Amino acid sequence: METTSRTTPGAAHLTNSQRAFGKAKLIVAAYGALSAAVMLTVVVRALTGHTVSSFMWGRSGGVLASAAVTHWLTVLAAHGKRWAYVRVRVISVVVPIAIVAVDMIPGALPGWFVAMQVGCALALGATAFVVNGAGLRAAFAK
């Protein structure tokens, strides 16, 4: 008796969703790594006697914390939690805009810090393209 492997539309949809969430988790992990690099750079600069403002400390800590929360939400969304998926969609669009908007305040932050933060914003912004795609939106339709 020969067994054939059949892929039902639901199974294919689930596979595509998991593939998309795999990409999203990878991109969010890159966002976290870049955020950690910003925080590490701030720490090293402070320890070596360079000027580091409290704004830079708070900003790098906040972005690193947002990376941890975004990763947690992405993992929950990948397990089918619609509320987490909705939050990842919003975060992936709003947070990069907020990062860049604050970076544009004249004289508030040094160029190296702005460049690193923009890298974080670009990484998280890339997540928006994955999680707002038609496939995942269909998987979490009301």
Strand-helix topology:
Layout: H1 9-47, H2 54-78, H3 82-103, H4 111-131, H5 134-139
Helix pairs in contact: 1-2, 1-4, 2-3, 3-4
Describe the 3D structure.
With 142 residues, the chain is mainly α. The chain has 5 helices and no strands.
Task: Give a brief description.
By secondary structure, the protein is mainly α. 80% of the residues lie in helices and 0% in strands.
- Biggest pleated sheet: none
Q: Helicity level, as a percent range?
A: over 70%
Basic shape? elongated
Helices, by number, come to: 5
Summary tags:
about 140 residues; mainly alpha; about 0% strand
